[in-house]
Amino acid sequence: MGQLVMVVDDSGLNLRVATNILKDDFDVACANSGEAAFELMKRRIPDLMLLDLHMPGMNGFEVMEKMNADPEYKDIPVIMLTADNDRDNEVRGFELGAMDFIAKPFIDQIMLHRVGRILELTRLQKFLKREVAEQTEVAEERRRQVEQLSEEIMKTLANTIDAKDKYTNGHSVRVAVYSKEIAKRCGKSKKEQKDIYHMGLLHDIGKIGVPDTIINKRDKLTDEEYEAVRQHPEIGSDILKTIEQIPDIMAGARWHHERYDGKGYPDGLKGTEIPEFARIIGVADAYDAMTSKRSYRDILPQQVVRDELEKGKGTQFDPLFAEIMIQMIDDDIRYTMREK
Questions:
Q1: Are 299 and 170 in contact (CB under 8 A)?
Q2: Statement: the pTM of the whole predicted model exceeds 0.90
Q3: CB half-sphere exposure, 76, CA atoms < 13 A
Q4: Alpha-carbon separation of residue 242 from 78, 94, 116, 246, 289 (angstroms)
Q5: What is the mean pLDDT of residues 179-201?
Q6: What percent of the chain is predicted at pLDDT more than 90?
């Protein structure tokens, strides 16, 4: 039995179009009203729901409110369907828990990509929740073994993401190591150093949602492709935010591309508005990007990297953490802190 996508829309035409788009990859169930959707869910709970916003009787918002109130349905991921371009409706939808919106009329590739991405995101969230739940049940005498397993899982996830891009082999582990060293040099505790190491390992996990063809493209990205790449911090934070046992682990994923001058993304945070660990990871990430091979250039000379960090103090980077990274460069006489 395949993954079930339920399409809820009062338009028979929209139901037929959505079914034709999805039927080759998923099981599809159709309901022409909110009331009918709940009847269908009594028989089989869908893995994802495509929910029309405007319907007679129970509208999309009311369906979501009823689902949120029912433990059996509240975790079903929802993508809302609408022909509107109404910001207030989008805000309300996200507040109720919608994970995305799809505009009408439907475009095949957009619907397939978003449905696939949300299902993969949900699968990863469930996987990570399950791993954490299993670990917390382990007796105290096995705590160290569980912590080691957690780190191995994170490394495996990090290596899996890095493997999507042939030019970033080992990137996440190096960023984690550099971030931990920066934290150590600015006086952070052992626990804080360990936390930022884990954040560094998973800072790029959102790239799971970026197509490999874009990540490995040698030519200049189109505006649409660049926008897809810019989505990875938000995708990453959505994956990691459910891990309650490691608070704030999503900070590195969401905010490592913010800039100290406020010109970064995804939220345009400025200065100390950016969480401290994300500011550290941002410096480490930029350093590793410059000291790794790319399709269009070799590893940059150490002095060039140092000059770029010096130039970026107070604009791209937190001045304190950039200065510590520069100190690490000066200590690295043989230039060993780079991709091997």
A1: no
A2: no
A3: 31
A4: 17, 16, 20, 9, 29
A5: 94
A6: 59
